[in-house]
Structures are given as structure tokens and as C-alpha cells.
Design a protein that fits this description.
Layout: H1 2-32, H2 35-41, E1 44-45, E2 48-52, E3 55-57, E4 60-64, E5 68-73, E6 82-83, E7 101-105, E8 110-115, E9 123-129
Parallel strand pairs: 1-4, 2-5, 4-9
Antiparallel strand pairs: 2-3, 5-7, 6-8, 8-9
The structure holds cobalt (II) ion.
């Protein structure tokens, strides 16, 4: 009789601990989410991006409205600069061959994320401010 009470109490305690652990795990996961925000905060102030080794470098840049950004491909394969969200305000290149460049003038403030069409794992960001 007495043991039953103790076991019941222990079971309840274990459930409480499990729930608290779950809540902590979930809140940790949430605090990891704004990674993209950190990425744009670390954006480099430049208007030149090099495409090399299947990467845009710097991966995140920041410019003022009216700036022309130039991407230069140093890889032997073609790459593109393709806005994730297609719009006339966002860059959209044809294939950029080795040694060739593509330029786009940003006329509207905003955060533009882009990728390479043949290699969608290649990502970049342009932060445009007034
Ligand atoms: Co590519």
C-alpha cells in the first residue's frame, strides 16, 4: 500500500521532468531558428560577389539603394544568379560562363535571397537599404 503511493509519486515526478525537458528542448530549437537574421547581420558591405567552388562569396552582402552589384564566375562551370522570389526588382541572370560577369542594379530596399538555378544548394543574400 505504502509502496504503491511512492511509485505513483515517482511516476508523476518522471512525467513532470519529461514535460519540462521537452519544453526546454523546444525553446532551444526556437532560439536556433533566426539563423538567417544572423547571416544578414554579418553581411559584408560590398558590390562585388565572386562565384567560386560552387559558392557565392561573400555569401551575404549589404548595399544602398541604387547600387549595381556584379557577380563574377571563376568556376569552369556555368552558374546563375536567380532570385528566390522572381520579380523585376530582383536579379535574374542567364548562364554566367567562366570569367564572365553579371550585374544588377537594386532600386528597391529589401532583403533579396537568391540561388544558382543549376545548383539550388548555392545561396546568397543581398540586403538593400535606403
Ligand atoms: Co551554380
Amino acid at each position: 500500500m505504502k509502496n504503491k503511493k511512492i511509485y505513483g509519486g515517482l511516476a508523476l515526478l518522471l512525467i513532470v521532468v519529461a514535460v519540462i525537458t521537452g519544453v526546454i528542448a523546444m525553446s532551444n530549437r526556437n532560439s536556433d531558428t533566426p539563423n538567417t537574421k544572423d547571416m544578414t547581420t554579418n553581411a559584408v558591405a560590398t558590390n562585388a560577389v565572386v562565384i567560386q567552388n560552387y559558392m557565392f562569396s561573400p555569401m551575404a552582402i549589404k548595399v544602398k539603394v541604387g547600387t549595381t552589384v556584379t557577380w563574377t564566375n571563376k568556376d569552369s562551370v556555368d552558374h546563375t544568379v536567380t532570385a528566390d522570389k522572381n520579380s523585376t526588382d530582383a536579379p535574374s541572370s542567364m548562364d554566367i560562363a567562366q570569367g564572365k560577369s553579371y550585374s544588377f542594379t537594386f532600386k528597391k530596399a529589401g532583403t533579396y535571397t537568391y540561388h544558382c538555378f543549376p545548383h539550388p544548394y548555392m545561396h546568397g543574400t543581398v540586403e538593400v537599404t535606403n
